């Protein structure tokens, strides 16, 4: 049994609406980031992998097992959905034990597994607390613990850091990195910072299409020499906004400092070191251009 996820020619429809277009990805052990705006198709892809949605066509294997073998796939995959909630009135430990029973774990094994997992996600001291009394970050960590009950080879987490405060977010990311030492962890997010801090390999998905698949370093390299800074007067800003793809700006008195992506250096601008947010914006921007050029039959 190999340790990778192979996706070939995947298409997915909701009725007539196509949500995924010819997705091809090979995902290896470690942390894999799936980055895309709201509505890009991330959840659809995650749910398809978790066998909660059926694909229209294409091939998927998870650690060598075809996705059609849903029973086996569910043994291999742990899944933390975007909207995760569980037994709010139960105590943390009771809820975990109950889920462990449902997962078929028995007696001593169950007790040991629940203890180990609560320790791993740093919730042991909250065993007696009701689930509804946990903070957002604690709830997410409990979600991870339940997803790991069967000791899956793959952990899929959909938008886990939305709504967490910065400290909880960092703690959660570190937990995922630890888990990724011996598993495939797929982290889906629209928050560029989550990817930057944790993932080496990523895919960017936009309107159902994978528009980038590679390492974070490659992505940054591709943006090299195409990110610029410039200081202008506030009065010029509306025109600059029309002309440029601005990735960030801040105002200082009458001046505005902007950071933008462009194909070539323009007067008054200085080239700067790209960050992953710039590179992501550049990719979204150029994929739009690609589509438009494609429609016109032009060469890219
Ligand atoms: N049950 C559904 N019926 C019809 N269309 C759907 C359904 N679920 C999702 N879609 C559409 O499919 C596309 C992809 O949605 P999906 O939820 O996978 O995106 P996402 O990247 O996960 O975004 P978000 O972070 O907002 O969940 C969107 O255009 C969405 O409106």
Automatic annotation (TrEMBL):
Name this protein carries in UniProt: ABC transporter ATP-binding protein
SUPFAM superfamilies according to UniProt: P-loop containing nucleoside triphosphate hydrolases
Domain called ABC transporter: residue spans: 5-232
GO MF entries: ATP binding; ATP hydrolysis activity
Annotated InterPro entries: AAA+_ATPase, ABC_transporter-like_ATP-bd, ABC_transporter-like_CS, P-loop_NTPase
The entry's keywords: ATP-binding, Nucleotide-binding, Transport
Annotated family: Belongs to the ABC transporter superfamily.
Cited Pfam families: ABC_tran
């Amino acid at each position: 049994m190999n340790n990778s996820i192979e996706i070939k020619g995947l298409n997915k429809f909701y009725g007539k609406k196509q949500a995924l277009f010819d997705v091809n990805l090979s995902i290896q052990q470690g942390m894999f980031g799936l980055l895309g705006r709201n509505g890009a198709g991330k959840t659809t892809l995650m749910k398809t992998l978790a066998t909660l949605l059926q694909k229209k066509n294409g091939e998927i294997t998870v650690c060598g097992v075809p996705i059609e073998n849903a029973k086996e796939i569910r043994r291999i995959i742990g899944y933390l959905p975007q909207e995760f909630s569980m037994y709010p009135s139960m105590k943390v430990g009771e809820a975990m034990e109950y889920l462990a029973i449902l997962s078929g774990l028995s007696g001593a094994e169950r007790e040991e597994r629940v203890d180990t997992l609560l320790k791993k996600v740093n919730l042991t001291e909250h065993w007696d607390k009701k689930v509804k009394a946990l903070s957002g970050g604690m709830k997410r960590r409990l979600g991870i613990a339940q997803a790991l009950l069967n000791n899956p080879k793959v952990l899929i987490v959909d938008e886990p850091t939305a709504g967490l405060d910065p400290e909880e977010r960092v703690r959660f990311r570190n937990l995922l990195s630890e888990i990724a030492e011996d598993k495939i962890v797929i982290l889906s997010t629209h928050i560029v910072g989550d990817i930057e801090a944790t993932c080496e390999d990523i895919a960017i998905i936009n309107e159902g299409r994978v528009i980038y698949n590679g390492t974070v370093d490659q992505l940054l390299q591709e943006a090299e020499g195409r990110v610029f800074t410039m200081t202008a007067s506030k009065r010029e800003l509306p025109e600059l906004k029309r002309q440029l793809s601005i990735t960030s700006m801040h105002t200082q008195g009458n001046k505005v400092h902007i950071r933008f992506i462009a194909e070539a250096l323009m007067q008054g601008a200085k080239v700067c070191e790209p960050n992953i947010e710039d590179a992501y914006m550049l990719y979204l921007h150029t994929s739009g251009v690609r589509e438009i050029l494609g429609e016109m039959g032009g060469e890219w």
